Amino acid sequence: MPKRSWRFSSLKHPIALDSPGVKLLLLGNEAIARGAVEGGVEIAASYPGTPASEIVDTLALIAEDLGIYVEWSVNEKVAWEVAIGGALMGKRSMASMKHVGVNWVIDPLIHCALHGFKGGLVLISADDPSGHSSATEQDNRYAALLAEIPVLEPSNIQEAKDFTALAFEISEELKLPVMVRSVTRISHSKGSVILGEIRKVRKDPSFHDDYYFDFVLKKGFAGADVIPDAHRLLHEKLAKAGKVCEKYGLVKVIGSGELGIVASSVAVSYALDAVEKLGIVDKVSLLKVGMSYPLLEKSIAEFLADRDFVLVVEEGEPFIERFLAGIAKDVNPKIRIYGKLTGHLPREGELKPHLVTELIARFAGVDVKVFGGFRENTLSELTRLAEGMLTPRIMTFCAGCPHRATYFALKRAIKKVSKGEYVAIGDIGCYTLGMNPPFRMQQAVFGMGGSIGVANGVAKSGTHLPVIATIGDSTFYHAGIPALINAVFNQSNVKVLILDNEVTAMTGFQPHPGSGETAMKKPTKKIVLEDVVRACGVDYVKIVDPYDLKKTQEIFEEALKLNGPAVIIARRLCAEEYVRRARREGIKLRYYTVNEEKCTGCRICLTEFGCPAIFWKEDVKKAAVNPTLCMGCGVCAQLCPTNAFEVVS
């Protein structure tokens, strides 16, 4: 029996606990971090991005105690390259990131699959079906297929830990990078986890000529003949993955009933839960796929051989479903495969437990209502009732957010300079919320760093309108620099607004190159934003404080009248981070109130500024301030035409 009690002692996080058998309640990403620890990780790198951020957040807390190097890299590509470098020196290394981060990694990922490393090399992809915290949804099993590397898919929090640790072993056995694909409902769910042993082996770093360069040395040159040899070896290594899959039990059948279900990732948990609730455990056989690429064709063929049909439930695209069709044509051509390709489950959005339950119930001949399941009409009714009880709200900036003041000043400047006409391309971060009312300051967003590059093209289209790119400080370090150089090099008439709140705020206040602190809380040199901008060749560089509305608007007006690239850096610490620091230091925040005798009820503070700390008092037709939300930025007092906002110390 596993132990049920433990003490923190001096640990900064329980994932550092060296007590095999202890059971902990962990977030999925914490479990992945613990799996990396048990797998003997020595180098871990990442760029913040939901739903992956907590992996390195957690590892950074215990890194120094366990002799692990952890960093927030400038972007995901660099993070993966850091991990490659560690593995090249024999160190078990890992890079973790959200699904769109893998897009940045594709080039070095495909390259390194052709190479071989002494140290285990693991890529954690935290996919975000439905795009809860993302601009897109994508299934990164296809990225692994493109790179030809194995993919493990944990189905619960325990496996999130176990599969991460196992990924290092498989990587070293096959001499290949291994992807562990999590999804939001794994990364951001909590579950009980039984701890395993921590691998304490630490090897001295030593460079190793990888297989690719072995081919180069044998042939005496790096030419076209080398690439097919390396690719052939990659296919030989992938062919061995089946035995590895069998060795670690990554594909197994649960149950012995006639109704066949093939499932992976969190869909395994949904299916097993549904089968239990429907009371049909004895009627179902579930093929649990823990390694979704390359598939263990032998086990799958055996599962498909004597069935009339199977159901396929998986999170994301019909990845496994497509492979099943190819396998079935040789072993059971008449079998019917039902899933996303047949329209029995939606291809868009994340998989819902009630949809899995209804699918299984339908093919099992069971009324889903026997256990109180939700049909679509029931869910619609619940949604309608909830909407009647809740106030409609859109996502908006926090109270006191400097980005709100920045957009307010920019919008007024545009109205004055170009009668409110403009083209603004946004980027990825808190400031993306500027596309929502009341500002509507971005017409398009195309991914990290895309604002400046796309704005370059818009400016070259011949438009007479002001062209504006809005990008955050962390995003600028991540991917904005090349596009800004391009704007200078090609003389694009682009105005770049860098919203600098001094942290990577949206993902959890992680440091970036301009913060002066590393992931492991070590002081480091600040990469000064304006120095980088000037080094890119920009002549017009201005720094403004968004809380000074008048000055900020003046600078925007000046920049909009210029011909050529210009950069305005709107710098003010993130309001939430400011409040956090003030609380830690025991500083009592001031707040504002409305003098009702001065307030005329013009509603500018509500309709044009939209601070959530300001609300409307219907009984007196006046604005008011919620003192529990107000953090005392004072911008409302500057924009009020009647000076109705007054500070309360």
From TrEMBL:
Classification of source organism: Archaea, Thermoproteota
Statement: the UniProt record of this protein carries the keyword Transmembrane: no
Domain of life: Archaea
Signal peptide location: none
Gene3D superfamilies found in the cross-reference section: 3.30.70.20, 3.40.50.970
Name of the protein described by the UniProt record: Indolepyruvate oxidoreductase subunit IorA
Domain 4Fe-4S ferredoxin-type, chain residue ranges per copy: 590-619, 621-649
Keyword Methyltransferase: no
Enzyme Commission no: 1.2.7.8
PROSITE patterns in UniProt: 4FE4S_FER_1 (PS00198), 4FE4S_FER_2 (PS51379)
Function text: Catalyzes the ferredoxin-dependent oxidative decarboxylation of arylpyruvates.
Reaction(s) catalysed (UniProt annotation): indole-3-pyruvate + 2 oxidized [2Fe-2S]-[ferredoxin] + CoA = (indol-3-yl)acetyl-CoA + 2 reduced [2Fe-2S]-[ferredoxin] + CO2 + H(+)
GO BP term, example: sulfur compound biosynthetic process
Binding site for [4Fe-4S] cluster 2: 611, 630, 633, 636
Cofactors, names only: [4Fe-4S] cluster
Record-listed [4Fe-4S] cluster 1 binding positions: 599, 602, 605, 640
Keywords: 4Fe-4S, Electron transport, Iron, Iron-sulfur, Metal-binding, Oxidoreductase, Transport
Species, as recorded: Thermoproteota archaeon
Cofactor, free-text remark: Binds 2 [4Fe-4S] clusters. In this family the first cluster has a non-standard and varying [4Fe-4S] binding motif CX(2)CX(2)CX(4-5)CP.
Subunit text: Heterodimer of the IorA and IorB subunits.
InterPro entries: 4Fe4S_Fe-S-bd, 4Fe4S_Fe_S_CS, HACL1-like, IorA, Pyrv_Fd/Flavodoxin_OxRdtase_N, THDP-binding, TPP_enzyme_TPP-bd, Transketo_C/PFOR_II
SUPFAM superfamilies for this protein: 4Fe-4S ferredoxins (SSF54862), Thiamin diphosphate-binding fold (THDP-binding) (SSF52518), TK C-terminal domain-like (SSF52922)
